[in-house]
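The instructor's notes for this session suggest beginning with a concrete chain rather than abstract definitions. Hand out the sequence below and ask the class to guess, before any prediction is shown, which regions might be ordered.
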Amino acid sequence: MTALTLSTAAASGLRADAIVVGVAKGSGSKGALVVAPGAESVDKAYDGKLASVLETLGASGGEGEVTKLPAPSGFKAPVVVAVGLGEVPEKDETYGTDALRRAAGVAARALTGVKKAAFALPVEDADDICALGEGALLGAYSFVAYKDQGDTKPAKKNGKDAKAPLAEAVLLGGKPRDKAYKAAIERATAVAEELNRARDLVNTPPNDLDPEAFAAVATAAAKEHGIKVQVLDEKALTKGGYGGILGVGAGSDAPPRLVKLSYTHSKAKKHLAFVGKGITYDSGGISLKPAGHNETMKCDMAGAAAVFAAVVAAARLGLEVNVTGWLALAENMPSGSATRPGDVLRMYSGKTVEVLNTDAEGRLVLADAIAKASEERPDAIVDVATLTGAMMVALGNRTFGIMANDDAFRTSVHEIAEEVGEPSWPMPLPAELRKGMDSATADMANIGDRMGGGLVAGLFLQEFVGEGIIWAHLDVAGPAFHEGAPFGYTPKGGTGTAVRTLVRLAERTAAGDLG
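After discussion, reveal the predicted structure:
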C-alpha cells in the first residue's frame, strides 16, 4: 500500500523521484494552459515558462492527461509530471475535491514502480489533502495477486519493480503537525485501504471466494478491528427460516452464509444498518445466463464487499455511531438441487415468494437480510447490490440508482454520493409497478413488469423493510465493475463503489445529521 506523508517544503528542494503538478485549461476562446496553484516554485524554476513548455509538448490541461518532462537544473527530483485538472475554476471558486482526487489518482497510476513522488497540487484546506490522499491511494491500486504467484523474479524497469505501486506520496501544502491535516491523512488512509480491500474481494476468482471464504475474511478483519461478528451457516439458516438465502444457495456445493458485523461506540446516539448482496458467483441458476454474460459474475458480491469495507472503515475512524453490516452470501448455481422456476420460498419474514426467474436472486437474499436487520429497529437501513441490468440500461456504467421509502433520505444519500465523487441518481418507486409481482400461488413473485425492472426490484425489497424504518436501496450494477481502461482513480475490474457513500453517511449520522 502506498504511504502518505505531509510536507510544507517547496517542491524544488524536496528529494523525490518525481514532482507532480497540476495544469488546467484556461478560460476564453484560446484556452491557454494554466499552471495550477501549488506549483509556483516549479514554474519559477522554469523561468515562469512551464505552461509554454508543456503546450509545446502537446499538453492541454484536459482531465486525465499526463505529461512528463525533465526537471529543471537544481531540482532534487529528476522528473516533473504534469496532470490535467480540466477547466480552470470560475472566479471565487476552487478546484473541486473530486477533481483533485481524480488528478492524484491519474498521477499515482502513471508513477507505478516509483518509490517517492511529491504532489504539488492545489491545497486550500484539510479536505483537499484528504481528497489528494484518497486519490493517490486509490489510483495506485492494482490487483496482481494471481499474476505474481509463481514468479521467481519481479519484472524490472530501469532497475525498479515495474509492478510495484507508488511507494510514497508526499502531499505538499499540508502541515504535518496540524491536527486537521493529520486527521485528513488518517481518514484518507482508512477509507482508501478498506475500499481497496473491497476491490480485492470483487476481483478474487469465485473458486477462491465462495460464501464460506468471504465469511472467513470478514471474521478475521472484524477481530482485528474490534467488531463483533456472527456467522450463520447453512444449519443456522435452516433453523432460522431464511428461505430466500437458502433457496438461492440450494444449487451450489458451497453453502450460503449470513454474516453480521456489529460496530458499536459508547457515545453513539444513532444506529445504521448496511445490507450487502453477496452472490459470490451468479450463473443465473436454472434460468441460466446466456453466453457472454457469465464472465464477470464474480463481481455479484460487490454490494457485500462495500458494506464490509464501510463497517471496518467506520471502526477504524472511531465514528460515534453504531453500524451493523449484514452480508448475505450465496453462490447461485444450476444443479439437481437448485431452486426451479415455479418453486415457492418461505422467506425469513414469513412472506412466500414464487420464484419465476432464478436469475432474480439478489433480491431474495437481500429480502431475508433486510427483514432480519429490521428486527433491531435501526434508524435507517441502506442496502447495496449489483441488482439489475435494467439499472445499467437506465443510467449507464458509471452511475448507480438510489431508491428509498423516504424522499428526504433519498435526497440526502444522493447528495452524499455526489459529495464524495460517486455518481448517482435518485429513482422513483412507482406504486403501479407493484401489481406486476402479484402471484396466484404465493404472496408475491420475485419478478414483475419487464419495463422498469430496476424499480420493480426496489419495490420487491421495500416489502421486507420493517414498518416505520427509513430505507434506501443502491443499485450499483453499472459502476461496481469496470471493464474498460482505467480512468481517474478508477481501475479496471472491481471499483469499490458505494464504500465512500456509506462511510460519509455514517460520519454525517455521527454528527447528528441523518438526513
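Then share the key points. Residues 184 and 222 are 24 Å apart (CA to CA). The two ends are 34 Å apart (CA to CA).
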